[in-house]
């Protein structure tokens, strides 16, 4: 895609499968975190956000939720939930940050590793995405913001989260295309918006407002 091309909105369908890996304590969690495919890391840090349409989840990822509830490690759960997902541009960096946070916790002197209750093991999943066009197209920034209210949350998620983190891009698809169209200030404003503190509906409304106020 270059600055002469229209913006084509895509959506995705996901196939979620078990990897066969599971953990009942932090050491097992660490070992599997080093081995699972990147699609598993992405799934466990983002699927909860996509599934909450009306309220922001208390914990931002499955790892934080599991260590807090199954292992009763509330302090570690808070640290994992506090990892700033928007600060990473690759799954590799995100994986390393999660591992480092857990290793620091495990390495504290005198810490006894808890085992989760039987049946509460962490099961690693992975997802495969199937990408397809939505039929929505914008030929210029004005049309982009006219079309955006019709865009689904799944499409929004794909263009802002998938394209940036899972595909290893430094910015999201919206900002990249708007910058190519000469709307650098607006592109930067969207890039600077922190999406993890709001629902996808709220995030879309925020982008629409930026488009209305910034043009």
Q: Oligomeric status of the shown chains?
A: single chain
Shape: elongated
Distance between the termini: 23 Å
Uncertain spans, ≥5 residues at pLDDT below 50? none
* Alpha-carbon Rg, integer: 19 Å
What fraction of the residues are assigned to beta strands by DSSP? 15-25%
Summarize the structure.
The chain has 215 residues and is of the alpha+beta class.
Question: What does the model show?
Answer:
It is a single chain. This protein is α+β, with helices and mostly antiparallel strands and 215 residues long. Helices cover 50% and strands 16% of the residues. The protein has helices spanning 26-35, 38-51, 62-69, 74-81, 91-106, 141-147, 153-166, 173-180, 184-191, 200-213, and strands at residues 7-23, 122-138. Strands 1-2 form a two-stranded antiparallel ribbon.
Key descriptive features of the protein:
alpha+beta, two-stranded antiparallel ribbon, 215 residues, 16% strand, 10 helices
